[in-house]
Specification:
- This protein has 284 residues and is of the alpha+beta class.
- The chain has two domains: 130 residues, Probable inorganic polyphosphate/atp-NAD kinase, domain 1 (Rossmann fold, 3-Layer(aba) Sandwich), CATH 3.40.50; 135 residues, Tumour Suppressor Smad4.
- 16% of the residues lie in helices and 39% in strands.
- It contains six helices and 17 strands.
- The strands form three sheets. Strands 7-6-17-14-9-10 form a six-stranded antiparallel beta sheet, with helices on one face.
- The longest helix is centred in the N-terminal third of the chain and has 12 residues.
- The protein is elongated, with a radius of gyration of 20 Å.
Length: 284
């Protein structure tokens, strides 16, 4: 292990206190580090004593990245690092932190990373294209999900798998997710929980105005197309891991498994089922 990128969300790590602690721990172990912040904390300036860079500049020779924040920070790290396949160790500083490996009271386990005492979990990603009037106007990648949603009003949607009709409904939209994203918006919309090591594409209608619109769990080689209807002219959007783009009637969104994957550093043997109950179970 020679170089680790530290990717803090400064809105979560106030004053980069946790990032600074991990930075000092790694430097004492002779690991080269560089801090590449994702988000600035509004009016809270970043500490001037630290040196900063960008992921694009530092990724080529990085052995690992550590993210400091919530699941949104992990998603951003995944998009930035997946092309190179750089492993990500996620430290939770958010609320749920479902994908995070460590909490802030477990920083001592950083030394296991230095010793090489960890494994890598691979997570399927999806890629999305937005087609308008026969022209591709956007392409992107997601670790969690792609959402075609309404802006407070009903939209009409047709969903296809490899050009075969899957379902047609009016409602608030549709979530097309990976197994990793099955515990996020897809689950909240009534979709199934799928083990993150699986490779499937999950299609879940959001508040459909029809009784028979159900969730579908599809094979990873399916090409999913969501077509926004033209009968209603209500505003709609495309969200790719939370990054929004306005849609127009007749737009087509295609989703398929990506050749990219997210590699997450794993330090524990905690089961997926325990994580689900710990993070998403009922509170008493």
């Amino acid at each position: 292990m020679n170089k680790i990128i530290l990717c803090p969300n400064a809105t979560r790590d106030d004053g980069l206190k946790v990032t600074t602690t991990v930075n000092e721990m790694l430097r004492k172990c002779k690991i080269r580090t560089v801090i590449c912040p994702f988000f600035e904390a509004g009016d809270i300036p970043l500490p001037e004593r630290l040196h900063y860079s960008t992921i694009d500049r530092e990724i080529s020779d990085a052995d690992m990245a550590i993210s400091f924040g919530g699941d949104g920070t992990i998603l951003r790290a995944a998009r930035a690092l997946s092309e190179k396949g750089t492993p990500i160790l996620a430290i939770n500083m958010g609320t749920k932190g479902f994908m995070a490996e460590l909490e802030t009271d477990e920083l001592y386990q950083i030394y296991r990373v230095v010793d090489g005492d960890y494994s890598i979990g691979k997570r399927m990603m999806i890629e999305v294209d937005l087609i308008r009037s026969g022209e591709k106007i956007y392409s992107g990648f997601a670790l969690n999900d792609v959402v075609v949603g309404s802006m407070g009003r009903v939209v009409d949607l047709e969903i296809f798998g490899d050009e075969h009709a899957i379902t047609r409904f009016s409602g608030d939209g549709v979530v097309i997710s990976t197994p990793t994203g099955s515990t996020a918006y897809s689950m909240a919309a009534g979709g199934p929980v799928v083990e993150p090591s699986a490779e499937n594409i999950i299609v879940t209608p959001i508040c459909p105005h029809v009784l028979v619109a159900k969730s579908f769990v599809l094979a990873p080689d399916r090409r999913i197309t969501a077509v926004l209807g033209t009968r209603r002219l209500n505003p709609a959007y495309l969200a790719v891991d939370g990054q929004n783009i306005d849609l127009e009637p007749g737009d087509m969104v295609t989703v398929r498994k990506s050749l990219r994957e997210t590699r997450l550093v794993q330090l524990s043997n905690k089961s997926f089922y325990k994580t689900v109950h710990d993070k998403l179970g009922e509170r008493t």
